[in-house]
Each structure stands twice: as structure tokens, then as C-alpha cells.
Amino acid sequence: MHPIENRLSPVQLLDPEGEQKIHDASMRLLRERGILVVDYPPALATLRRNGANVEGDTVRIDEETLLHFVDMAPSTFTLLARNPANNLPIGGNSSVFAPVYGPPFVSDLDRGRRQATLDDFQNFVRLASMAEEIHCSGGTVVEPNDVPLAQRHLDMLMAHITLSDKAFMGSVTHRNNAADSVALCEILFGAGAMRRNPATIALINASSPMRYDERMLGALEVYARAKQALIITPFIIAGAMSPSTLAATLAQQNAEALFGICYAQMLNPGAPCVYGSFLANIDMRSGAPCFGTAEGALALYAGAQMARRYGLPYRSGGNFTASTVADAQAGYESAGTMWPTLHAGVNFVLHAAGWLEGGLIAGYEKFILDLEVCGMMQRLAGGIDLDDEQFAWDAYAEVAPGGHFLGSQHTMRHFQSAFYQHKIFSMDNYEKWEAEGSRDSLTRANARWKEMLANYEAPPLDAATRDELEAYVERRRREIRAGRGR
């Protein structure tokens, strides 16, 4: 499937007065409280030079200056893929699905929960490459714990580049890792092409509340100067990293996101930016984050509306769950986030497949089950066609009142595309299900991911390009092992 062209009108949760209140509150936070910029003097110098008020590590900025720079960010852009057929429109009414990001653990029915390895990382890249419901290969799909930390970004980038021809995300764990991501993209796409359209997209998190650190700002600077795309995302668990009310949380999220986007434009006007949101609420009894909640859905709708106010693409949503296994809780909580994700008009959906245990686990079976939901969301986003063929006049002429349409010519023309065709969910009656082995959805998903990996074929890559990529990676490994460049 191609990226979603969402024909549904986005939910407008806030009236104009409510939208203005959130905007005004966020401007007050930036003007009076300010953002803490930690351990990165270059950012302080850039912000001061462009009109911000810098006192020590605290940066305050007025509304006029902030919006002057935010307005420089494009409202839409195209993210390049190694296969041009997989290029991604970001913004407007397009929605892009990317897999889970960042879990240190994986799980499956056969081996249970365990530390993720490079083999697991490569498996998930292969699955995402084969899945028509996933449009972007993702980034740190899992943390390959069997690879040294200083080098693992090279293995992850090479997996995305060689095992998939979809767009992928750059590394952000160090500014040098970001520079490696840009350099590998220059080999793959050419420096000129990727300045016209970004060849990678990077997830930059604010250290909420109201704080950015050297690691994120350093990576942001590398990507912005290279005019690569940035997803500026406050990471907020409401009640812990923001106040326990949605109004204050949304104002804080707005302030943190706009600040990061403003800084990117100071570095390079026109750098592609996505207004990001990762927002859950805390369980006040246990301190654990909650997913699929009513509050999460409300915040998702409001965040999308604020992004549209500033003419920015929006990142949020996903198949979230706090459950440790792909059980009924996981299904309900994931659906509780994915439905508002679609109706809010989210443009970039990270964590669309594989998320378990609040993001600590990438689940093989959960990945497959989430693909089923993503496919249904794509069908829903297509809306209802109303051309003459869809009204089926020839079918009414063929079938008499009281008859049935199963064998009509119109049905024969449309039976493969009229309705979403389930791949994992079963619609069989009990007797047929029992006769075929009484397999539940987890068992079917387990068989499906194994079948996909068994049938995987790597997309072709020019031999000279591969050699150049591998030579760069080997040189960087030597430098890292020698203590240079990291």
C-alpha cells in the first residue's frame, strides 16, 4: 500500500478560543519560565544571536521572535527512499506508518522476553520492508545489545540501507552518529539530491519538562545544517513530566515543540520539521505510564490541531499498550490510540507496529497483529467512493428483488477490493476454526512472521554503492575503536 491519503476531515476538538488559550499559555511559558539548555554552549550562542534572552542556561524567547522562525519551516516535504516508488509525502493529508522505536527487549511465543540483538533488529527491518502497511523502515527498531554501543548505529543504519529500500530514520544518540547518518545518505542519494529533499528523518526529544540537552541539540544541529528532516518531540508523561491537567500539559508540549523547531530554523531556514508529540499520562497509583486512555486521545486531537495552527506536519499516535504480552489489554489499548490517530490526521505515526510493555518490548506477534490494524486504518482513511460504478446499477438490473448479489457481475469485478481482506484475524465459525486446529490470533501471527522471514528477499543495491558504504563504515569502526570521533 502507498502512504495513506486521509480523506477523513480531522477532528477539531478545540474551538478557536481554546486553541488561542493553549497558544497564549505556551508563549507565556517561553517568555517567563523559559527553556533550560544543558551543556551545549553553541545552542546558547545561536539563540542569543537570533534574539532570545539567554541568562546562564535558561533561554527565554518572545512570541514574535519565535513565530518568525517557526514560520520558516515548510508545511509539507518529501522524504526520499532508496526506491523512488517508496518516497514519502510528509504533511497535508498524508499519513505515514513506521514501526516501534527503541525497545531494549524483544519477545515471541517461542522464546519469551529477552534482550534484543542485531539479528532481531535485522528481522524487524526485513518485516517492515515486506509489510505493505508500513511505509517507513523506522529507526532504532530495537536496541541491538550484542553490539558495542559506540558502533551499533553503524550496524543499524546499514541494516536499513541494505535490507530495505524504504525511507529510514537517522541516529540521534550522538552528534557524530548523526553525522554518520548524513554521510551514509550522501553516498546513497548524493549530497545535492538530499539538500533538495531530505533523505532521512530524525527523532529529537525534549527532556521534559522545559529542557533540551547536549545530545539532542547536537544531533538536531547536524541534521538541520544538512537540511534533513527533524521530528521535534516533547516526551511527556502527564502528572510526572508535566502538571496533571491536560491544559497545562498541552501548553507545555506546544512550548517545547515550537522552541525546538525555532532553533532548527535559526540554524538553517527551511529545514523540514515535524511537530511531534509523545504524550501519555501516569497511573497515580503505581507511577506507570498509561496508554489507550481517554486523556491520551484528547491530547492527541488537541496536539494535531495546534500543529495545523502553525502549518506544520504532526507526529503522534501508534499501537501503544502497557501490556507485556499481546493480549486483550494490548488490543484494546492499541485500538484506543490508533482510532484517534487516524481521526486527528496524524502525518507521521511512529510505533505503528510491535510496541509492548510501554515501549520496552518489540513483540514479533504484536508486530503482525498491528499490521492488521494498520491495514484497516488505511481502508478507513480512504472514505467512501461515490462514482457511478460504486452505485452498482448493473447489479440491480441483474439481480431481482429478493435475490442475492454474490454471483453478480458487479460483485465479481469488486470482490477482491470491496472490503478489507483480513490476513490474521479469523472470521470463521467455531466448527471450521476448531477443525483447522483451534489456532488463536497469536498462533497465527507467530506463523505469519516466520513465513515472511523465510520468504524475504533483499532489494537490489548497486555493488559500487554497497562497497562505498561498507568502506565508510569500516573506517568509522576503526576510528571509534581508536577513540576518535566519539
- For the termini, the CA-CA separation is 40 Å
CATH architecture of the domain at 4-13 and 71-381: Alpha-Beta Barrel
Beta-strand proportion:
5-15%
Helical content stands at 40-55%
- Class from secondary-structure proportions: alpha/beta
Radius of gyration: 23 Å
CATH class of the domain at 4-13 and 71-381: Alpha Beta
Largest sheet: 6 strands, mixed
**Mean pLDDT across all residues, rounded?**
97
Shape: globular
CATH topology of the domain at 4-13 and 71-381: the name is: TIM Barrel
**Uncertain runs:** none
Labels describing this entry:
486 residues; alpha/beta; TIM Barrel; four-stranded mixed sheet; 17 helices
Short description:
With 486 residues, this protein is of the alpha/beta class. 45% of the residues lie in helices and 14% in strands. The protein has 17 helices and 19 strands.
Describe this structure in words.
- It is a single chain.
- By secondary structure, the chain is an alpha/beta fold.
- The protein contains 17 helices and 19 strands.
- The protein has a domain of 321 residues: TIM Barrel (Alpha-Beta Barrel), CATH 3.20.20.480.
- The strands form 5 sheets. Strands 10, 12, 13, 14, 15 and 16 form a 6-stranded mixed beta sheet that branches. A 4-stranded mixed beta sheet has the order 3-4-2-11.
- A hairpin with an 8-residue loop joins strand 5 and strand 6.
- Helix 10 packs parallel to helix 11.
